[in-house]
Design a protein that fits this description.
The protein contains seven helices and five strands. By secondary structure, the protein is mainly alpha-helical. Helix 2 crosses helix 3 and helix 3 crosses helix 4. The chain is globular and about 60 Å long.
């Protein structure tokens, strides 16, 4: 699939993705490729009928579509996009941002529960890094763009020829300005 990163500015799409199951489903299909509702349910820890419903909602918004199977017996879904950014002025953007952060922290908690069962090679390369930066908004945008340029070739939905031992890895970036004492009061 060719890379297709969109900016979500439609309040309906933003609100729909603020639902954690839909956000998980879209993330799974973007990173791991086409899947049935049952396969999606196993991947995100939900049930097939609920996943099927939420996949139809996402399809109605043009974020996923049918992926015809070889034999035509099972209904597979694929993401129509490879990533998205949120228009901060779109209605519901704060809720979607909060849902995205919550999903990242939930994935981190699940990883920590399962970490001891992973191969040493993965445990030796996992990382949590925290940096206290002193930057302007323009500098932060530049830093984020440089990181994005490094990561983009490895996005699962568009990477062809990944090594056989490659696995799906969640890489999150959280860059939040630290409020000044007394700000907003």
């Amino acid at each position: 699939m060719q890379e297709k990163r969109v900016t979500l500015d439609d309040p309906r799409a933003v609100a729909a993705l603020a639902h954690p199951v839909r956000l998980d489903l879209l993330g799974h299909l973007m990173s791991d490729g086409p899947a049935t509702a049952s396969q999606c349910a196993r991947a995100i820890g939900d049930n097939p009928s609920n996943c099927s419903y939420h996949l139809r909602v996402l399809a109605g918004l043009g974020l996923v579509e049918d992926d015809p199977s070889q034999d035509g017996r099972e209904r597979r879904w694929r993401a129509t996009i490879t990533g998205f950014t949120i228009d901060p002025n779109a209605g519901g953007s704060d809720e979607l941002f909060a849902a995205s952060v919550q999903a990242d922290y939930q994935a981190a908690r699940q990883y920590l529960r399962d970490r001891s069962r992973l191969d040493d090679a993965w445990r030796e390369t996992d990382v949590h890094a925290h940096y206290g930066l002193r930057v302007t908004p323009a500098e932060l945008s530049q830093i984020i763009q440089r990181i994005d340029d490094i990561v983009r070739p490895y996005i699962g939905a568009v990477r062809d020829g990944a090594p056989d031992d490659a696995a799906t890895v969640n890489l999150s970036l959280l860059a939040l300005p630290k409020p000044s004492p007394g700000a907003g009061s």
